[in-house]
Amino acid sequence: MCIRDRDIDGPYMSLQLAYNYGVAFSMFSFLEEYLKYIQLALVLGGIIYLYKNPNVFVDYHLPIALLFAGGLSNILDRFTYGGVVDYFYWHYGFKFAIFNLADVIIDLAVVIIIYKQIKQARAEKKEQELNS
To answer: Residue 66, CB half-sphere, CA atoms under 13 Å: how many?
Structure first.
């Protein structure tokens, strides 16, 4: 490992400071100043939705908590630094975008939601087959 400035280079992954002024892969970076408010409105919309549909929270409390944690972390970065602070750079086998822990947490939440949806759909299909 060698250290240059503040970056740390490893054989598989490096730590490199970068600011993302857009969303995933810097999309919508032209909305840089407004993204924090748009994302905050989305979080508030999610809270209102959960308030009106508490059964969703009961079934999906873990991924919802992860989504809110990752999302609020990125929003805090936007208000504090003007953009999301990214620092993990995967470069083993293929070069990938620089990302942060909040991105990983959000991705994990989405995977859990998809898994639970597939599991629920299979259970409903099996129940329908038994009732037919």
So the answer is: 16
Quote the tokens at residue 34. Answer: 């407004």
Catalytic residue among 5, 77, 103, 107: 103
Contact yes or no for 72/44 (Cβ under 8 A): no
Catalytic position from the list 5, 77, 86, 107: 86
Does 59 qualify as catalytic in the annotation?
Answer: no
The tens digit of pLDDT for each residue in 61-87 reads 999 999 999 999 999 999 999 889 988
Largest CA distance in the chain: 67
> What six digits make up the tokens of 36?
């924090």
- How many of the other CB atoms lie within 10 Å of CB of 107? 13
Tens digit of each residue's pLDDT (9 = 90 or more) over 92-123: 777 777 889 999 999 999 999 999 999 999 99
Residue 23 pLDDT class (50, 70, 90 cuts)? confident
